[in-house]
Design goal:
The chain is mostly beta strands. The protein has a single domain, classed as Thiol Ester Dehydrase, Chain A (Roll), CATH 3.10.129. Helix content is about 10%, strand content about 35%. The chain contains 1 helix and 8 strands; from the N terminus they run ββββαββββ. The strands form 2 sheets. The protein has a 6-stranded antiparallel beta sheet, covered by helices on one side. The chain has a two-stranded antiparallel sheet with strand order 1-2.
Length: about 170
């Protein structure tokens, strides 16, 4: 059970969520960056929602659809891992990770069950430790309240952002 109020957006501060995030008008208590740039790799994941979930924790939500399926009729592992990668950034920042530029250093994912389109995936992210140069995270992705994937990841702080941000 989360200790985050249902309408968290009314009590949040700018340091609780990633830069540029705004309360999502369709999902009270959740934040979003809006739509990713059309044609970007991130846009293939679809809309992401995120919110803090207590000290050192956050939840990031994806809405998988048929475009995320593999030929076997379940969610494609690459789509799931892309979502998890994005969730450790958004979730890490919501969980209290220091604001900086990061790159993924490693990401390990365990496939516990086969996800299906049509029901949200919720990545429960926990910030384990933050050092001067790295952030260590772990979590579980749930669908319908059940664990479907688990993960650990390390983000490395870099001194420069993307070329478009320079």
């Amino acid at each position: 059970m989360s200790d985050v109020p249902e309408d968290f957006s009314a009590t949040s501060s700018p340091s609780d969520v990633p830069a540029g995030a705004k309360p999502d008008p369709d999902h009270p208590g959740w934040f979003s960056w809006g739509d990713f740039p059309r044609g970007s790799f991130a846009a293939a994941t679809g809309k992401l929602l995120f919110k803090p979930d207590g000290s050192g924790r956050a939840i990031v939500r994806m809405f998988p659809n048929e475009s995320h399926m593999n030929m076997g009729g379940s969610l494609h592992g690459g789509a799931v891992m892309s979502f998890i990668d994005m969730s450790i950034f958004a979730g890490g920042l919501c969980a209290g990770m220091e604001r900086a530029h990061y790159v993924t250093l490693d990401l390990t994912t365990h496939f516990i069950a086969r996800g299906q389109p049509g029901e949200p995936l919720d990545s429960h992210v926990e910030l384990i430790k933050q050092t001067r140069g790295h952030a260590f995270l772990q979590g579980v992705v749930k669908q319908g309240g059940l664990p479907f994937y688990s993960f650990t990841g390390t983000l490395k702080r870099v001194s420069r952002g993307n070329p478009s941000e320079r």
